[in-house]
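Appendix B: complex inputs.
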Amino acid sequence: MNSEAIVKETRAYHCLECGVCTSSCPVARVNPSFSPRLLVEKAIFGFGDEIVRDRDLWSCLVCGRCTSRCPSNVDYLNFIKEMRIEASKLGQKGLFSHDGIFNTIMELQSLSLQQKRTFWITDDLEVADEGECFYFVGCLPYFDLVFGEGGYCDVGLKPTDRARNTVRILNKMGIKPVVSNDERCCGHDLLWNGDLEGFRRLAELNLKTIKKSGAKKVICLCPEGYVTLKRDYPLYLGEQDLEVVQLYRLLADKLKEGKLNFVESGSDNPVKVTFHDPCSLGRIAEIYEEPREILSGIPGIELVEMERNRADALCCGTSGWVNCSSCSKQIQIERLKEAEATGADILLTACPKCGIHLSCAKYNSDIKIEIKDITDLIVEKMV
Amino acid sequence: METAEIRIGVYICHCGINIASTVDVDSVRDSISKLPNVIVSRDFKYMCSDPGQELVIKDIKEKGLNRIVVASCSPRMHEPTFRMTIQQAGLNPYCLEMANIREQCSWVHEDREYATEKAVKLVSAAVAKASLLEPLEEKEVEVRPEALVIGGGIAGIQASLDIADAGFKVYLVEREPSIGGHMAQLDKTFPTLDCSACILTPRMVEVERHPNIELLSYSEVIDVSGYIGNFHVKVRKKPRYIKMDKCTGCGMCAEACIMKGRIISEFDVGMGKRSVPYIPFPYAVPSKYTMDSENCLFITKGKCGKSPACKDACSSDAVDFEQKEEIVELDVGTIVVATGFDLFDAKEKPEYGYGLYDNVLSGLEFERLVSSSGPTQGKIIIGGKEPKNVVFVQCVGSRDKSVGNEYCSRVCCMYTAKQAHLVHEKLPDAKLTVFYMDIRAFGKGYEEFYDRVREEGVRYIRGNVSEIIKKGDRLLVMAEDTLLGEPVDIEADLVVLATGIVPRRDVKEVANLLKISQSPDGFFLEGHPKMRPVDTATDGIYLAGCAQGPKDIPDTVAQAKGAASSAMTKMARGKVKVEVTTASVDTFVCRGCGRCVEVCEYGAPNLEEVEPGILVSQINDSICKGCGACSVACPSGAISMKHFKNEQILSQIEAVI
Amino acid sequence: MSEEFEPNIVGFACNWCSYAGADLAGTSRMKYPPNIRIIRVMCSGRVSPAFILKAFQMGADGVLVTGCHPGDCHYIAGNLKCEKTMGTTRKLIDVLGIGEERLRLEWVSASEGSKFADVVTDFTNRIRGLGPLSGKSQG
Ligand SMILES: Cc1cc2nc3c(=O)[nH]c(=O)nc-3n(C[C@H](O)[C@H](O)[C@H](O)COP(=O)(O)OP(=O)(O)OC[C@H]3O[C@@H](n4cnc5c(N)ncnc54)[C@H](O)[C@@H]3O)c2cc1C
Ligand code: SF4
Ligand code: SF4
Ligand code: SF4
Ligand code: SF4
Ligand code: FES
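Resulting structure:
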């Protein structure tokens, strides 16, 4: 798509130049040279060439704050995606964090290599090779090796805990999910970094794997994986005969049905927690209440909201492993301080990546608040 | 960044037949000429010859080349040559890349086809990198003609005198009230038995009188910043409560002090007593008194009799309880670290009864005991009597993993021999036994001295003492004579433990202050164990004496002279070149996580608060050595290594496969 | 050229010891298979896991990283840092299905020309034995 087509496609023509996007944008707040409004403007006035060479094209977090508030319904997220696809064609790319290992790991997953990605499965977990329900794990095993204990960028958490948690919870619900060693990265980051071909390769391989297992239903913990499978796979590869479910939605239902139960609290003093809405789970998938319903179902837990929550929630500061910078750090510290200001002991996240980025920001800082995943808490308390 | 179009010239060397006999040079030349940005691709018999270099220069001028690739021998061989060549033609020397097709291709392979294919890949990689090369500026920094010497033991004294004699200003910082260090505490010195004070005192006095030496005694370095040529140093001068300019060293204050004879003398390692105002030993330099503030009643309690007796006694009105600490700031070009050692604390080996029994002494206590300036004026008296049976135990705290010291302290064998000799000299009838594991008499005249001591009748038993227990008012020393394979128990009136040399208790703090490293034994780490024994990894900081590891006085002095000379070399030239291919931080990208600071061995990166709460790493390129560790550790990709950027290396990887 | 599989091997060598060791193998005219192509870095501690992964992505069948022996690194401990990052990398490539045996880390000093030649020969043979990295797009 040329920039004119992109402008048309994403309703950028309708831009009112109101500036709501820029003033909503967390990046623009810390980096005044970045402005979503000006990017749209430039495109409208035919400076698409400039945009695709602009470092700031990669600074957008695709957090969707602007889109959700735009009075003209400009589809800013797709605007960025399409512009990045164009930029990629010219060999442009963002500045990869971690020297680009994650990008390469994603690309390597599209080769027909025999992975060993299920190393995290412990004996107590019940998983199947074939079945109704497919648990889509995502890149957690790779994150584990880099960010977990002993990894060369240890940020003090163990990403595969989330995967084990998920299987434990599903087992408790009587579900023995398919977990496949042939699963690949969902392709979210490749897509949003403009590598449409790479994304397609991964998506095709995943669909093949899922279908081969006989599953009709895919459960995702990772919100990015969820939106990718649910929205982007059909978009780019056609309708699939698959039901894609986000874990918290499933659990909220189970809670209502009385199938998810928790131990009674042993103490009168509730543990105060606060919850960070991940962009993909919240603004993109519009799953706001389910995690909260689950939390309110756990005795001995008191949820205190951060100043900015639900659709207003701040982003965890970086996405797609590009352009992680001083801006990201400032956004993260702002978010962590906001969490601390609630007086909560624990900051809960619902996205493994948010967990990683926020823990990373804590490194060598004076932020004290503990960062956990909702599934940590569920596993701890469920009976 | 240059915006000009990249124009690469590639030169493939035959090296006579060294390359050409295995690599098809013509075919390499032709393949390479097809690569993007390559303007000329040539081959030549000897690229390093004058005509070869002329060829490059001519092409640069005529064809407007701005990047040069030479495919020939190892860059370790001719990179400097070709850098100079292209510089002559007006190009930046860093716009050169070499492909090693001799040592790493033609000389190690036989199959012409494979070797040629490999050569093409290697040259392609060099071309790929060359397209991304950036010109770099060489930098020199000025070196101030002033040196800081930390520690005034014999090592610091010697280094200071040498540097000062060469005409440079020296600031000698000594923590204690006097310089002299451990050597001042020794009686006689092996192997020549010179009296320690007799050879040391003249040097101490020389320090005091030297016009180029400023002695900052009773002072400590509290902060060091900067880098070679320009270190900024903060020194805390502790208050002596006695004015240096007024005190004549007469000692009336000490005589008058109501605490006289009640305070333990550190210099006599607990065996003598002193007053609150004190001079550590009679020939101290500076010969001025110092108030021991921790024990002074007036300073700690605010009251001492009606008025402090010392103040009343001083006829020069030198006592000044109002004195405050003073921070002195210095700028120096080089630093010599000569902080010496601590004695191993024998209490860490409780089986030897040290600290429990009065007649078990450490080696240093024994030095004070036999010294004519010591607490007994050199008479060997223990519990009121002269000992009849004296046992020496070697290797206490050395070569002993159970206390974490794997190394040999290098002086205990010899000082034990010396001490045995001194007892023999003073008490010819005493029975003397030495327990040892090995005798290390490696120095000049050492074996001869050891031989002499054995001739004097000292009995050497090979075996490590397992235990010392009380038996009546004597001691029972238990060991195995490993040569005979039988147990030996010896009754003794005095046991002297040959306590070893350990790193200073505050060695870690000093290391952090100076951003230098420690070796696994805890002493400061030298630049290279063989080739750079007096350097540290940090340019401009040198090591002397026991601070670097255990050694005797001759070695200490030799190393001090080496450190002084290294410092002088830099100061004499007045300028040093610093590394060009260093790390640099994109401050916009930097997340201020501090991983680079953690990983750098040289202390080059520093987190600075640029705005409240916002930390950014700044890498000092005069300190950075360009190893690249920080760049790997940096999660955000903020650090790029000049001449070894990620893009450059990735382009090589791509081209080489 | 024989029909036998000839692997692509990328080598990283630190300037001070290993690259010099490789040069010594050359000046001593030792012979080793031509499959390896060395990229010079100042220190093994400069070798980012990203370089290794990229090499495999680009089609390498094996990667050999060489550095100074522990204690000899020109930059004090770059080699030990490399050991740590290579630990992570090894696990990553194993989980990716590349196989950890395709990455090797060796200490080669400037005087170990013969060790360099031996290591390269042995590693090349092993990779040849493993066959091409399956799934890579064969050119
Ligand atoms: C019992 C015994 C007997 C010995 N007998 C002999 C012998 O007979 N012959 C022989 O050759 N060798 C002998 N030695 C070895 C000899 O003592 C050492 O070689 C010598 O003292 C080393 O000198 P130095 O200057 O390195 O250290 P030191 O003498 O320890 O001097 C270091 C100085 O630095 C000062 N200092 C420390 N830290 C700081 C700081 N942070 N800031 C400022 N100043 C600081 C200290 O106060 C001290 O003055 C003997 C050693 C012992 C223990
Ligand atoms: S998506 Fe988020 S980061 Fe991107 S422009 Fe909009 S508000 Fe800013
Ligand atoms: S915030 Fe995330 S992307 Fe950025 S450095 Fe940390 S872990 Fe990497
Ligand atoms: S390149 Fe090496 S020396 Fe330079 S700042 Fe980084 S870690 Fe330190
Ligand atoms: S490691 Fe990178 S992001 Fe972290 S402080 Fe250093 S330069 Fe900044
Ligand atoms: S210089 Fe060789 S490993 Fe660091």
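Chain C is about 40% helix and 15% strand.
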